[in-house]
Write a structure and sequence with these properties.
Number of strands: 0
Order of helices and strands: HHHHHHHHHH
CATH class of one domain: Mainly Alpha
CATH architecture of one domain: Up-down Bundle
Distance between the termini: 97 Å
CATH topology of one domain: Cytochrome Bc1 Complex, Chain C
Number of helices: 10
CATH superfamily of one domain: Cytochrome Bc1 Complex, Chain C
Shape: flat
Helix content: 55-70%
Length: 270
């Protein structure tokens, strides 16, 4: 009986085949580092194939910058980093904080400072980071003003930056009361009374901040809610809009940097 010919094995489907080597890489099997790198690349490719995030990343990261860009242009990124630091440290502090004016707020802060592992370090970062963020945002707005970056077509971005400054000051003001010690208590009373001297809306703003006519448990809870929920959400949304407009409109050149004329324009002048 004749022997039947052996049929070749069917080819593997494309998802099961090994990816071709990248330019500059050898065809041979690499070590564990190369395998881990390839696995990471495959995961990123898998996510990008389903989300197309690489296009947005290229649009955000790879863009032209004007000639003369210097370290002054990093003040905005430094301010955003300070905000992220405040957000991370604030989450850890909120895990232990109790907005109780009858000693609970002060005792929770004392417990974080003295007993929690790295609590004093985290609280120090949050406390001094707020001052750093205020300084950086003022420097950033000063650079924007003196470089003329608020002019057309970036007026909306300037308005958003002013609102971000106001929200940052609101965060500092509402966070100052949360330890609820003597200094925070009386300083907040002075600040609320100053707000009450404003025209038209001043008295209503003071009543809103106090939660009534007197300081009490409602005042601390209201400051805590504004500091932890209301203002951070608005800050995050406006920072996203701010970054979008920066990426869309680009940055301006320093005022001392003059644009070079094109060759055909120079020839036309001659």
């Amino acid at each position: 009986m004749p022997k039947l010919p052996k049929l070749p094995a069917p080819p593997l489907p494309p998802p099961l085949r090994e990816p071709p080597p990248r330019p500059g890489e050898s065809n041979g099997k690499g070590g564990p580092i190369e395998e881990a790198k390839a696995a990471g690349i495959n995961v990123v490719d898998w996510v990008d194939e389903r989300t197309s995030l690489s296009g947005a990343g290229r649009w955000l990261m790879f863009r032209k910058v004007p000639k003369g860009t210097n370290w002054f242009y990093t003040l905005g990124s430094a301010t955003m980093f300070a905000f992220l630091s405040q957000a991370v440290t604030g989450v850890f502090l909120a895990m232990y904080y109790r907005p109780d004016p009858a000693g609970g707020a002060y005792e929770s802060i004392r417990y974080v400072t003295n007993d929690v592992f790295l609590g004093q370090f985290v609280r120090g970062m949050h406390k001094w980071g707020s001052s750093v963020m205020v300084i950086l945002i003022f420097l950033h707005m000063g650079r924007t003003f003196f470089f003329g970056a608020y002019k057309y077509p970036r007026e909306l971005n300037w308005v958003i930056g002013v609102v971000l400054l106001i929200l940052t000051m609101t965060m500092s003001f509402t966070g100052y009361l949360l330890p609820f010690d003597q200094r925070a208590y009386w300083a907040t009373i002075v600040g609320v009374n100053i707000n009450g001297t404003g025209p038209l809306l001043g008295p209503y703003l003071s009543d809103f901040l106090r939660g009534g006519s007197e300081f009490g448990a409602t005042t601390l809870s209201r400051f805590y809610a504004i500091h932890m929920l209301l203002v951070p959400g608005a800050l995050a949304a406006l920072i996203g809009a701010h970054l979008y407009l920066v990426a869309k409109l680009g940055t301006t050149a320093p005022p001392w940097q003059k644009a070079e004329k094109r060759s055909e324009l120079r020839e036309a002048e001659v």
